[in-house]
Every structure is written in C-alpha cells, then in structure tokens.
Amino acid sequence: MTMTTALLIIDVQQALCSGDYEVFEAGRVIDRINYLSRQFRQAGAPVVVIQHEAANSPFAHGSAGWQLAKGLEVVPGDIHVRKTAPDSFHLTELQGTLQDRGAQRLVICGLQSEFCVDTTTRRALALGYPVQLVADGHSTCDNGVLSAAQITAHHNKTLANMTSFGPRAVPIAAHAIQIVE
C-alpha cells in the first residue's frame, strides 16, 4: 500500500537566511530542501511552504524578512500556509489541506530546529502522522549555550526517541528520504 507523503518546508525566510539572524549553513540547508522539493514535485506529492509572521518584527507580513529566502525554489503548484505560532497546525489550514490531499505521512524540514521544526514535528506526531525529519535539512543559530550544530543534533536525537504518540519521527538525511514506500 502506498502512503501519500507531503513535504513541509517551515520558515525558510529571508530574516533567518541572511543578516543578524542567519542560521547555520543556511545555503546548504536550502540546497537540500530544494533537492527534496524537486523530488516531491516530480512524484506528484504535495509541497507545503510555511511562512511565519509576527507584527512589529522581522517577520511582519509582507516585509523583506518575511519573504521566502533567496534561492529557495517554489513553483505555482506549491501550497502556501501562513502561521503565527511555532506550531504550523495552530490556527492554520494545514491539517485540512493535508487531509484534502490524502497525506498520511510527513517529511519535515526548515527553520528553526528548536522552535518551529520541533513544535510542528511534535504536533504532527500527536495528530497521527509518521514523520521523516530531514536530519540535515533543518537548522538554527547558536544560542550562547549550545552551537547551532549541537541544537540540531539534539533535536534529531530527541524527536527520534519520542514514542508516546504512537507514530515516530525518524531523522533521515535528505538524499535518503523515501517519498513512497
């Protein structure tokens, strides 16, 4: 039986990919996400591009920081979701959109590891979606306690060890992601 898989690209926006808040290895993460999105589109699987917004911040709707990152490949058929919380499902149309497209499994990538990627992954698991977490396709910034690389590695390990939801999050490198099983 084939499971429909959707790709969630979270918050790959200018404010996090350039300037003071540029995440670790932003260019490499975008390259991996572009590789995956091309694979998904070729397979006819949904690609969901999620953008965070917050008034009076670098993410103010329509601002330069709110725009998708330079170099991120998007096409007219991609689905766009706007959000205002770390949870991409919270008060958005994401769940309905996934249900309408028959998505039964998610591949999650984007920014930032310990905020929106973590929260969205946990919510996806709670909603019953098995998740392939793109282990080399999410990133963040150093936080003064841990390096960005340590934070990302920590979240790959932590999310993979969660069992209480039933469905699991499995960290997998971008080039090893399976769209269909």
Total separate domains: 1
What is the rounded Rg? Answer: 15 Å
Low-confidence stretches: none
Helix-and-strand structural type:
alpha/beta
Query: Considering the protein shown, what is the CATH homologous superfamily?
Result: Isochorismatase-like
Silhouette:
globular
Largest sheet: 6 strands, parallel
The helix/strand order is EHHEEHEHEHE
Estimated helix fraction: 25-40%
CATH class: Alpha Beta
Major sheet: order of its strands?
3-2-1-4-5-6
Calculate the terminal CA-CA distance, rounded to whole Å: 8 Å
Q: Any guess at the CATH architecture? A: 3-Layer(aba) Sandwich
Structural overview:
There is one protein chain. This protein is α/β, with parallel strands linked by helices and 181 residues long. It has a single domain (5-176), classed as 3-Layer(aba) Sandwich (Rossmann fold). It has helices at residues 14-17, 26-43, 94-100, 113-126, 148-160; strands at residues 5-10, 47-52, 79-83, 105-111, 131-139, 169-172. It has a six-stranded parallel sheet. Helix 4 (113-126) packs parallel to helix 5 (148-160). The mean pLDDT is 96.
What topology does this entry show?
Elements: E1 5-10, H1 14-17, H2 26-43, E2 47-52, E3 79-83, H3 94-100, E4 105-111, H4 113-126, E5 131-139, H5 148-160, E6 169-172
Parallel strand pairs: 1-2, 1-4, 2-3, 4-5, 5-6
Helix pairs in contact: 4-5
